[in-house]
Amino acid sequence: MVFPGELITTYVQQMNFARATMFGVYDSALMLAGVGHLTFTPRKAVPLVATSKERVAEFGVSVSASARGMGIGTRLFERAAIHCRNADVDTLLMHFLSYNQSMMHIAKKAGMEVHHDHGEGDAYLKLPPADATSALQEVVEEQVASLDYAVKLKARLLSLTEAEARCRALVETTPAITYMADLTDEVKMHYVSPQTENLLGFSVQEWLTDPERWVKQLHPLDRDRVLDAFNNTFVSGMPFKMEYRLVTRDGTSRWFQEYGVVITDAIQKRRYMYGTMVDITDRKAAEA
User: How many CB atoms lie within 10 A of CB 96?
Assistant: First the structure.
C-alpha cells in the first residue's frame, strides 16, 4: 500500500521513544535497506494476549524493494525478539494484512501462532526468558552493528570526497562562473567559482564577502531590468534567465547569459539558487 508523505510524517512524529526502539539495516551507500519498529505496550491494551508480564511487544518491519529476498526482515525480527527477552517481555505480536506474504513468511518462519480475521492477520510468539546467552548476544550484535556502520560511513565519506573533487574540478575549469546563493531571508553568496577573477577581475573572497558585489557591478543601463527580474525570482521561486552586462574591475563591461534555478531544502526549509553565468561578450560583438 502506498501512503502519502504527510501520513508517514504524522506516524513518525507520534512515536514515543520512551517505549519504542528502531532497528535498521544500511547498505554500502548508507541507504536504509530495512527498518524495524518495536514498541512496548501495557498488557491491558491487548486483552486477548495471555501473559503475566506487565508489557507486551509489537513489531513492524519494512524492507525496500531492492533488498527483499535477502533475509533482512527475518534478521530484524530476530534482533527484536532478543531485545524483548532481555527487556523481560515474553510476548511478541505482529499485525498485518493477510495477503502480506512477506510478513506471513517471517511469522511462520519464526514459529508464530497466526490468526486471521476479516482479511487481517495477527501473529503471536511466546519468548523464553532472558539468560546469559541472550544478554551477551544483544551486546555483541550492537557492537558488530556499530562497527559495520562506521566502516560503511568511512567508505561513503571517502566516495563523496572524491566525487566532490571531480565535480569541483569540472566546474572550475569550465569557462563560466558557477555560484550558489542562499535566498531564505536575504541574498547571501555561499560559493562562486574562481572564474570571477579571470572574467571580472574580482577574487572569490571579494565576491563572497561583499553581498552587494553583483549589484554594484551591474551595468547602469541593465541594472533596473535585471533587478526587477531577480526580485521576481526571489519572490516566486521561478528560474532566473537574463542577458546583461557586468562592469569589470578595470571599468570595461562584459556580457553574460545567466541561468539560475531555485531549490528548497525540505529539511532546513531554506531556499538556494544555483546558477551559471556564461560570458557571451564575443557573441554580442559579432551580433553588433
Answer: 19
Q: For domain 5-153, is the CATH number 3.40.50.1820?
A: no
pTM, full prediction: 0.56
Beta bridge partners of 108: none
Residue 42 scores a pLDDT above 70: yes
pLDDT bucket at 117, cuts 50 / 70 / 90:
low
- The CATH T-level fold of domain 169-287 is Beta-Lactamase (3.30.450)
The DSSP output letter for 218 is B
C-alpha separations of 33 from 27, 138, 144 in Å: 6, 21, 17
Element (H, E) at 200: helix 195-200
281 to 51, 238, 254: CA distances (angstroms): 81, 26, 5
CA distances from 30 to 21, 24, 35, 149, 158 (A): 20, 11, 13, 8, 13
